[in-house]
Design brief:
By secondary structure, the protein is α/β, with parallel strands linked by helices. It is built from 8 helices and 22 strands.
């Protein structure tokens, strides 16, 4: 707008100089027109702006990676000519706490009601709010701008990429009617059932040491306790903004959400009730999933729950270990962009643990060591290459 004003002022000054030098009627008429036109345009713009308003419409849900049509509608009371309309729109992602701002220029015609479409790319999943509070209209010459307060506020849910994972279990959970059934291949924390003995490893609980046998052998011996084979399963997902000084891109967190939702659906198709949760502010926020409506509600909660400002991978595991984990879960599927081996090893002593790590440049591979299973998933290709998983 300042460019238009500068050019208009330059033309006016040129007309004034021409009149002074030539002392003729034509430059004087031109100067008078140049001085009167802004007044006329200002009055015309004020009348055209009467009753102008704006609305916004957008579909409620979509998938990440899609391009969404955001529809803006302008309405006014008259058909007077109107210059360019500018709307400053803010796209707020509640999940990531991020803002995308854009200025949308609308060129209205003569109709009283006009519609414009703005393409919005759904780059990240989460709940997105679209809001604008000010409408700015310029005159036909671009010399003046009128502002009108508007109330534009829309919301949409951007779901993670859809994965159809064929889910298999190393061990199918069994039900119980009386007493306990123990898995001879999995170790646990039920002190009433000892499944084996081994040498002490730093980090083992002092309560698991067999003191009498250790005294006879003159070395520390640890009892391995049995675990009931009817799993109480937790899908524990983790989202991070950074690890130390290294920033974690949103693509890793989007992948964690996609795998969480897909695995939950896979367990549900196996008729395995489970919980889905994450640690937020030191507390486990979990949601039981036992039917499709509970699965949908879980997805909604995942997309609307904001990330913490600062998260450490070890904090999630420590929060679980400090809690009442022994009586809570016997199977944990830990989905994370980053994990610490020491804390994962401690968690594996409390529950049957499978770690799914989102990494870059690694194909899907299984590694069984240190008492838990590690599955590496490539962040760039998981949506095209992952078709099945065994946990």
């Amino acid at each position: 707008m300042w460019k238009h004003r500068i050019w208009y002022l330059a033309v006016t000054v040129a007309a004034l100089l021409a009149y002074i030098v030539a002392d003729r009627r034509e430059p004087l008429v031109m100067l008078a027109l140049l001085l009167s036109i802004p007044c006329f345009v200002l009055a015309l713009q004020g009348m055209a702006m009467r009753g102008i308003g704006a609305r916004c419409y957008v579909q409620g849900t979509c998938r990440m990676g899609q391009e969404i049509a955001v529809r803006f509608e302008l309405c006014r009371r008259n058909r007077l000519p109107l210059g360019t309309v500018r709307v400053h729109v803010v796209f707020e992602n509640i999940l990531y706490g991020q803002f995308r701002e854009d200025t949308i220029w609308l060129q209205p015609g003569e109709e009283r009601e006009m519609a414009f479409v703005y393409p919005f790319e759904a780059r990240d999943c989460g709940k997105v709010k679209i809001h604008a509070s000010m409408l700015e209209c310029q005159d036909l010459l671009g010399l003046f701008a009128f502002r009108r307060t508007v109330d534009i506020c829309q919301e949409m849910l951007i779901y993670p990429p859809e994965l159809r994972l064929h889910t298999e279990l190393y061990q199918k959970p069994e039900t119980k009617s009386f007493g306990e059934m123990y898995d001879p291949y999995k170790k646990g924390q039920d002190v009433s059932e000892v499944s084996g003995l081994r040498d002490y490893v730093p980090g083992d609980s002092m309560n698991s040491i067999h003191w009498k046998l250790s005294g006879k052998l003159d070395q520390l011996i640890v009892r391995e306790f049995g675990r009931p084979s009817h799993y109480n399963t937790l899908i524990l997902y983790e989202m991070m903004k950074n690890v130390g000084d290294v920033e974690i891109p949103n693509a890793y967190n989007n992948a964690a959400l996609a795998l969480t939702v897909s695995l939950s659906m896979g367990l549900l198709e196996l008729s395995l009730e489970h919980n889905v949760g994450r640690v937020l502010d030191g507390e486990l926020q979990s949601f039981p999933v036992n039917a499709m409506n509970a699965h949908e509600q879980m997805q909604l909660s995942l997309l609307c729950m904001p990330m913490a400002r600062q998260e450490n991978g070890a904090d999630t595991v420590y929060s679980l270990l400090r809690g009442n984990l022994k009586g809570g879960y016997t199977k944990i599927i830990y989905i994370t962009p980053y994990y610490e081996e020491n804390t994962a090893r401690q968690l594996s002593r409390e529950a049957d643990l499978t770690v799914i790590q989102i990494a870059q440049g690694k194909g899907m591979e299984y590694t069984a060591s240190a008492g838990y299973t590690l599955i590496s998933v490539d962040v760039d290709t998981y949506s095209e290459t992952m078709h099945s998983i065994t946990i």
